[in-house]
Amino acid sequence: MSIFSFFTRTRSAPVARDRLQILLAHERALSGRADLAAILREEILAVIAKHVAIDRDRVNVKLERGDHVSTLEVNVEMLDEAKAKAG
Amino acid sequence: MSKVVVVTSGKGGVGKTTSSASLGAALAQTGQNVVLIDFDVGLRNLDLVMGAERRVVFDLVNVVQGDAKLPQALIRDKRIETLSLLPASQTRDKDALTEEGVLGVINELRAKFDWIICDSPAGIEKGAQLAMRFADMAVVVTNPEVSSVRDSDRIIGMLDSKTLRAENGEHFEKHLLLTRYNAARAAKGEMLNVKDVLEILAIPLLGIVPESADVLNASNLGCPVTLHNPESAAAKAYADAAKRLRGEMLEIVEPVEKKGLIGRLFGRKAAVA
Q1: DSSP collapsed to 3 states, chain A
Q2: Which of the residues B142, B149, B201 would you substitute to probe the A interface, choosing the one with the greatest number of A C-beta atoms within 10 Å?
Q3: Which of B87, B118, B227, B241 could form a disulfide with B6 if both were Cys (CB 3.0 to 4.6 A apart)?
Q4: Does residue A5 have a pLDDT over 70?
Q5: Do the beta carbons of residue B50 and residue B36 sit within 8 Å?
Q6: Which residues of A touch B199 (CB under 8 A)?
Q7: How far is CA A68 from the centre of its chain?
């Protein structure tokens, strides 16, 4: 702890306020939809499965919350079925 | 028309029971007929804070299950004659309560009392949901601290969706009671201030209770602070909050930091930096 820390006292309350505001904005948007990632996963997979054969175990859905932008990442591994047919 | 008020918070240890006792006593001190119900089945404490722990014979669970009549279970306060307590059971758990049973008790109490104050258990499970289920309005007790504010936000969401009033599409009245407020620390930016909390939770403010030794003292003695030390800042905050619950329009004065000479000379340094 340096001698300056006495003078530049950390004001932690503004940080607390900002963190809460961001967190609660997300939590309120999600309330009532307990598991948004799971719902999105099911619906997106249903659409893809209509057209392409997929292995449900090889699907990865990630919902990441940022300060300004949230991203939804869906990774679907395609089966080699299509290639096999063509060849 | 009687009013059913749930005192709730989500988080534990923020002052629900103390606030239930103090608000109830303050209302009763103005001549209103008040009953306090402890919904914390298994972890009752309202009896202790009210100084009635040795007078409990029957409890809420006994009444709900039909083992005792309501008047047998009600404990009349010895100091304020318009104040009664319906204690929780200490030996059972929350599953001993049913929605129909609680509704029956509340309806019976509505006929006798002006105010029915439901002291909610912490959490968002069955006990807390039953405490809020039949309420007309809520007092959300919050400390100026991140986890308490987050949990209060969650509880506010539940009040707007899980109460009978909300389900019937009616507006559900909610009031914020900020407790354990330390004006000095808020002024220094070390603690969320009133404005921060109000901005985040966005419900009307019922009162600000300063962090105070008088409150602990009153609990130690089993006497609500509004009765034990009515001149203290905390007691005045509760008394004013009770008046606001009754619809009086009183201005809310934010507690200010009281500084001695030393504090005035040296305290400024910290505030500026």
Answers
A1: CCHHHHCCCCCCHHHHHHHHHHHHHHHHHHCCCCCHHHHHHHHHHHHHHHHCCEEEEEEEEEEEECCCCEEEEEEEEECCHHHHHHC
A2: B149
A3: B118
A4: no
A5: yes
A6: 17, 21
A7: 13
Q: B239-264, pLDDT tens digit by residue?
A: 999 999 999 999 998 887 765 555 55
Hey, are the CB atoms on A24 and B192 less than 8 Å from each other?
A: no
- Name the minimum distance, in Å, from the CA of A87 to any CA of chain B: 56
* ipTM value > 0.95: no
Give the nearest partner residue to B190 out of A13, A28, A31, using CB atoms. A13
Q: Nearest 5°: CA angle at A80, between A76 and A85?
A: 135
Cα separation, A21 vs B115, in Å, equals 35
| B1–A contact, CB cutoff 8 A | no
CB pairs A-B closer than 8 Å: 46
Q: What is the mean pLDDT of chain B?
A: 93
Distances in Å between the Cα of B98 and the Cα atoms of A27, B187, B228 are 30, 46, 36
User: pTM for the complete prediction?
Assistant: 0.81
Taking CB atoms and an 8 Å cutoff, what residues of chain A touch B194?
A: none
Residue B125 tokens, joined:
């499970």
B77, two tokens: 């306060």
Confidence band, pLDDT 50/70/90 cuts, at residue B105 = very high
- Best A2, A3, A9, A21 member to test B by mutation, with max B CBs in 10 Å, is A9
Return phi, psi of residue B139, to 5°: -110, 115
